[in-house]
Design a protein that fits this description.
single chain, 110 residues, mainly alpha, 5 helices, elongated
Length: 110
């Protein structure tokens, strides 16, 4: 898997702010949810390709793996319900998060 060149910079930036372990958990659950969602989409594409190529056994194995990915996604979604950022952040942290979200959205193209 290719290495994300910006990952170290982002990690250092996050850790420099000394977030609570709860906030790190929220970040990790969100990242895991995104990864599982991406993997499920890829398995769907691979299953379609295998079906088109008439590789029934391959499609069956891919469906089995996709089922496991969906189960993992459900677990991540359950975790995300347990760790809610608004319940673990101070008022100051929420204000900083909201102001950062507003300023980063302004520069994005629609």
């Amino acid at each position: 898997m290719p290495r994300d060149p910006g990952a170290d910079c982002r990690k250092k930036g996050i850790l420099r702010r000394k977030p609570s372990q709860d906030l790190i958990d929220v970040f990790n659950v969100g990242a895991a949810t995104k990864a599982e969602t991406y993997e499920i989409c890829e398995y769907e594409s691979l299953i379609d390709m295998a079906r088109e190529m008439n590789h029934k056994k391959v499609a069956q194995l891919l469906r089995q793996t996709m089922k496991e990915e969906k189960a993992t996604l459900k677990k991540m979604e359950a975790f995300s319900e347990k760790v809610k950022p608004n319940q673990i952040m101070s008022k100051e942290q929420r204000a900083v998060l909201q102001s950062n979200g507003k300023s980063s959205r302004r520069g994005r193209a629609a």
